[in-house]
Design brief:
single chain; about 300 residues; alpha/beta; Quinone Oxidoreductase, Chain A, domain 1; Rossmann fold; 7-stranded mixed β-sheet; 6-stranded parallel β-sheet
């Protein structure tokens, strides 16, 4: 079967198509004939070698990709949630040649749910990883309806899902945006929009003088965002930042790997798409041979919507 990955770490040009042996579903597992795989910033870390130490125990090629959509073509013993022929989406934890950029992949059944009704494979594959990351961030903050949440990096995949899920949870959302993205961020559901940038914390505080109850740091500004948060509030971080903060503010690092088999949470995201509470945004699709171009566009920044590889 075909996969897209690297045998030598490097820039986008290092990505190539390889043939590897196919795998089969064991007990409690599902095999998916992959039709679409989303491209994420974390994928570039596998390609570049930033996670070489984690990959050292595996033989190459090293295959990125954390979310896929396609058709179930094999189920193992004990699987009751899906059957052969179902259209599904799933979250993937890459390990060596096991990654989402594959035309076939075997996953735990708890990582696989059916696609939302009425969406394409390309659309469906954009949801699992970022959707579950957003869900985990909100779960860690544990805010109550009516409380204020700040979202940075709001126009991105993670930030956009945070806004929509937060509104579904009954939260008041203040989000950052460039002038060009303001309409998008408002349409996602933000109650207040402020200009993004190095002084965004001050702009958030100007709108909510007491400080927000919680903040999701999609822009990865870490300590620079602490002034936006009220005494005793919390910040959910996506790159592991967990410093001690002043005024009783806590940092809560998000690691979506721990949500990879949270079947009920992924299925709830599926239902929220069907209910119109969560939208799926696709920017462009690529063939496996064009994966390097997808990475180049992603790293150039400014893409609104997800880049997707189609098999």
């Amino acid at each position: 079967m075909r996969v897209v990955g690297v045998t030598e770490f490097g820039g986008p040009e290092a990505l190539r198509v390889f043939e590897v042996p196919e795998s089969h579903a064991g007990p409690g597992e599902v095999r998916i004939s992959v039709r679409a795989a989303a491209v994420n910033p974390t994928d570039t870390l596998i390609r570049s070698g930033a996670r070489a130490e984690m990959l050292a125990k595996f033989p190459p090629p090293y295959v990125p990709g954390m979310d896929v959509a396609g058709i179930v073509d094999e189920v193992g013993d004990g699987v009751t949630t899906v059957k052969v022929g179902d259209t599904v989406m799933a979250i993937v934890l890459p390990a060596g040649s096991h990654g989402g950029y594959s035309e076939s992949i075997v996953l735990p059944a708890a990582s696989v749910v059916r696609e939302p009704r009425g969406v394409t494979h390309v659309e469906a594959c954009t949801l699992p990883m970022n959707g579950l990351t957003a869900r985990q961030a909100l779960d860690l903050l544990a805010l109550s309806p009516g409380q204020a949440l700040a979202v940075t990096g709001a126009a991105g995949g993670f930030g956009g899902y945070v806004i929509q899920l937060a509104k579904a949870d009954g939260l008041r959302v203040i989000a950052d945006s460039s002038e060009a993205d303001e309409e998008l961020v408002r349409n996602l559901g933000a109650d207040i929009v402020v200009r993004r940038g190095p002084d965004v914390a001050e702009r958030i505080r100007a709108e909510i003088p007491a400080g927000v109850d919680g903040l999701t740091d999609g822009s990865v500004q870490s300590g620079a965002l602490v002034p936006a948060v009220r005494d005793g509030g919390a910040i959910a971080t996506v790159r592991g930042w967990a410093d001690e903060c002043e005024r009783g503010i806590t940092t809560r690092p998000v690691s979506v790997r721990s949500y990879a088999t949270e079947w009920a949470k992924l299925d709830t995201l599926r239902q929220q798409v069907e209910d119109g509470l969560v939208s799926l945004r696709v920017a462009r699709t690529f063939t496996p041979q064009q994966a390097g171009e997808a990475h180049r566009l992603l790293e150039a920044g400014g893409t609104r919507g997800r880049l997707v590889i189609e098999f």
